[in-house]
């Protein structure tokens, strides 16, 4: 081989090596398909959202220790406190005033002092009462101030306090003692000595202020299934209003349509043969009505959602960011989920978005059912948001967050993994178009949404609370109801109040009404309210004057007063209702956000009802009021046990004040009427049982902001649609190889009950 040939071959070899090195270097610089890509850091918030953060367990403990050492009265742990003793009922975050927060967030002002709100029950005083203290500053408390009179206009009567777990234990002990007075009846009616029967509370508790008299409904208890579907027909009325448990007494007994003065009288009637008894067998676990145990072995796996390159959202402390969105999240142990400082593309849209109350109002021909109006905030919507089941309650790969609370004990409790955050592919285009004329192309964008979810179990019902953030700048709020229905014993004309769903079980009609607070700040704090709707006008046809045409036109109206902005429940509202800014967009329209409500609410309680004012928020599907620090919530945990003299009456907020260029709040009611049927056994399904509302940009932007999304898809007839560079959908085959190895399944939700 000649030297010239050798040099040529050597040169070619060097060129080949150089080319390969360049290719390898280029590949290293571009992200690998399965390489984790962290979400873009959209701003440097530097912990500002912590001004809204829930209390930590350490802060709660500090508050408890401070109160124990500075109030000068004996305090008993609420988990064992008698009504005649003093205890700390709860400790939660005391939110700073909005003006202070905005000075800190927007104006470079000082961080507001961090404070707690402590609720105490003082039973061991000459005048027993409920007192609320603000304690601060945290983490090392040095002061406390009584805010009860300032908040409520006077002292809080002791009878308004929510019922504690210890109080229920003592009530059940009383009921068990009374049941022992009717042994033969219990054997005949229920194959029971009373120990296998469980009670379900009703509320409110009586007919007038000061009453603490409650109907308790008895059910067969079967391990591993919901007892709510197995009523035995027996209900008892208990007076538990005295400070001394020994003075509590059973006032009445109801069985199968008849009332008795005591269980002893019930027994006498049975022994005398004067009582018609429906003989029930003790249900068996494998055949009990409402069992949720699978009836078939597991089948093939369904579709799974995963993130090929890791989550595209970021969670830091109490703040989540996602494709232009920024949200501070938290949980009130009473009222449940609450969000603050919701921003899109750096602009605040909502200052506060929080659940206020969940009402369940029942009908029945049994005393327990017909008197039930549960106000779930008094039981604890946030407190009873337990651990979520990964892969079912939320996607397996979601981010799960612990929530902490202190209620009815001096020790903070943790509900692990009780809030989840995930990106959801709804399998629906956010927008799309296929062009089949002039030029041929396709353009679209998947409807991917950030979801913040928690689920509350309130006795028998489970409420799924969703807050969703869309690429179009819209916020969606939605609640689904599932879980077990509540039931009554079927007797007489029971079907006037529901449907029979078992041999002796009446699924009782009821309504679910949910209330939200939405403090919108659209392009600033000062907003007005505008409605738009369509009308028809009859005009002469401009090109054929002998004819007329019915032309739709847009009727715009600015609402000036609160009374104009209070829209009664189930009365048609304007189709478009918006919070408007004084500032225009590029097209000279006011920058606005539209409120769109999706609801199938039942009828509100008649206003002449003695307890209606306690739930007067339910009069309105939407009410817009001027924001005031002294009107932070639409209800109170004390309304449940004294609805006849409500601690907070929402109707008082609507007093015809001006709502033009003011800081405004929208109060929104959604809900549905539920008449249970056979298909509600074993559980009510979420399909068709979801309601909520949207906050949608309306001329807020100059165009749909989702046009800037990196997820957009566009290709024309002239392109190679199978090329990954031209069409992101063509990259999915390689992304499918990035399925993550899921972490082992874990559930600890039974450990903290």
From TrEMBL:
Active site annotation, chain numbering: 376 (proton acceptor), 461 (schiff-base intermediate with substrate)
Keywords: Copper, Metal-binding, Oxidoreductase, TPQ
Residues bearing the modification 2',4',5'-topaquinone: 461
All copies of domain Copper amine oxidase N3-terminal, residue ranges: 161-258
Pfam families documented for this protein: Cu_amine_oxid, Cu_amine_oxidN2, Cu_amine_oxidN3
Broadest EC class assigned to this enzyme: oxidoreductase
Copper amine oxidase catalytic domain ranges (all copies): 305-706
Single GO MF descriptor: quinone binding
Name of the protein: Amine oxidase
């Amino acid at each position: 081989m000649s030297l010239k040939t050798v040099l040529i071959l050597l040169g070619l070899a060097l060129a080949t090596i150089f080319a390969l090195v360049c290719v390898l270097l280029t590949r290293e610089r571009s992200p690998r398909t399965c390489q984790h890509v962290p979400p873009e850091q959209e701003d440097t918030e530097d912990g500002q959202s912590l001004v809204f953060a829930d209390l930590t367990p350490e802060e709660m403990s500090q508050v408890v220790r401070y109160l124990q050492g500075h109030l000068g009265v004996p305090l008993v742990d609420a988990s064992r406190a008698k009504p005649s003793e003093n205890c700390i009922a709860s400790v939660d975050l005391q939110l700073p005033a909005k003006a202070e927060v905005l000075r800190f967030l927007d104006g470079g002002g000082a961080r507001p002092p961090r404070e707690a709100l402590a609720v105490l029950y003082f039973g061991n005083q000459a005048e027993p009462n409920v007192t609320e203290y603000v304690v601060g500053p945290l983490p090392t408390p040095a002061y406390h101030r009584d805010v009860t009179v300032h908040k409520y206009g006077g002292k809080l009567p002791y009878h308004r306090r929510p019922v504690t777990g210890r109080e229920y234990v003592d009530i059940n002990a009383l009921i068990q003692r009374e049941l022992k007075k009717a042994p033969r009846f219990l054997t005949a009616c229920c194959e029971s000595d009373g120990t296998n029967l469980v009670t379900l509370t009703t509320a409110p508790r009586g007919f007038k202020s000061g009453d603490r008299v409650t109907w308790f409904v008895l059910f067969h208890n079967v391990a591993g299934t919901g007892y709510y579907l197995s009523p035995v027909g027996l209900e008892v009325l208990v007076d538990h209003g005295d400070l001394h448990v020994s003075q509590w007494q059973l006032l009445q007994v109801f069985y199968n349509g008849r009332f008795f003065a005591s269980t002893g009288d019930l027994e006498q009637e049975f022994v005398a043969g004067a009582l018609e008894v429906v003989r029930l067998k003790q249900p068996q676990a494998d055949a009990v009505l409402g069992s949720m145990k699978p009836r078939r072995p597991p089948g093939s796996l369904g579709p799974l959602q995963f993130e090929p390159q890791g989550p595209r959202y970021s969670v830091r402390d109490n703040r989540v960011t996602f494709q232009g969105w920024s949200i501070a999240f938290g949980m009130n142990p009473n009222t449940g989920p609450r969000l603050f400082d919701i921003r899109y593309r750096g602009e605040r849209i909502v200052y506060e978005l929080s659940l206020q109350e969940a009402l369940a109002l029942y009908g029945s021909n049994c005393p327990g059912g017909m008197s039930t109006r549960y106000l779930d905030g008094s039981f604890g919507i946030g407190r009873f948001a337990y651990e979520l089941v990964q892969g079912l309650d939320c996607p397996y790969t979601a981010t799960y967050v612990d929530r902490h609370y202190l209620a009815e004990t001096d020790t903070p409790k943790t509900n692990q993994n009780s809030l989840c955050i995930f990106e959801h592919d709804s399998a629906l285009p956010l927008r799309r178009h296929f062009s089949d004329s002039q030029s041929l192309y396709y353009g679209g964008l998947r409807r991917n949404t950030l979801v913040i979810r928690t689920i509350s179990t309130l006795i028998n019902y489970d409420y799924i609370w969703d807050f969703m953030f869309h690429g179009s700048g819209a916020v969606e709020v939605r609640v689904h109801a599932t879980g077990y229905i509540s039931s009554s014993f079927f007797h007489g004309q029971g079907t006037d109040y529901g449907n029979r769903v078992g041999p002796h079980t009446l699924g009782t009609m009821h309504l679910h009404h949910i209330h939200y607070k939405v403090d919108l700040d659209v392009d600033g704090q000062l907003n007005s309210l505008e409605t738009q709707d369509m009308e028809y006008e009859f005009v002469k046809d401009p090109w054929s004057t002998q004819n007329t045409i019915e032309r739709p036109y847009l009727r715009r109206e600015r609402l000036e007063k609160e009374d104009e902005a209070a829209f009664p429940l189930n009365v048609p509202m304007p189709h478009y209702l918006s919070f408007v800014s004084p500032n225009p967009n590029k097209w000279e329209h006011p920058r606005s956000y539209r409120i769109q409500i999706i609801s199938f609410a039942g009828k509100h309680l008649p206003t002449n009802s003695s307890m209606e004012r306690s739930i007067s928020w339910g009069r309105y599907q939407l009410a817009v009021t001027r924001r005031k620090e002294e009107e932070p919530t639409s209800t109170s945990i004390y309304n449940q046990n004294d609805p006849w003299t409500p601690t907070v009456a929402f109707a008082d907020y609507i007093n015809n004040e001006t709502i033009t260029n003011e800081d405004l709040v929208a109060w929104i009611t959604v809900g549905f009427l539920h008449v249970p049927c056979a298909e509600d056994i074993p559980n009510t399904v979420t399909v068709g049982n979801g309601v909520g509302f949207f906050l949608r940009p309306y001329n807020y932007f100059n165009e749909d902001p989702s046009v800037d999304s990196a997820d957009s898809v566009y290709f024309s007839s002239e392109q190679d649609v199978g090329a990954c560079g031209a069409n992101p959908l063509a990259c999915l085959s390689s992304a499918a190889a990035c399925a993550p190895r899921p972490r082992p399944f874990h559930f600890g939700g039974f450990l903290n009950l």
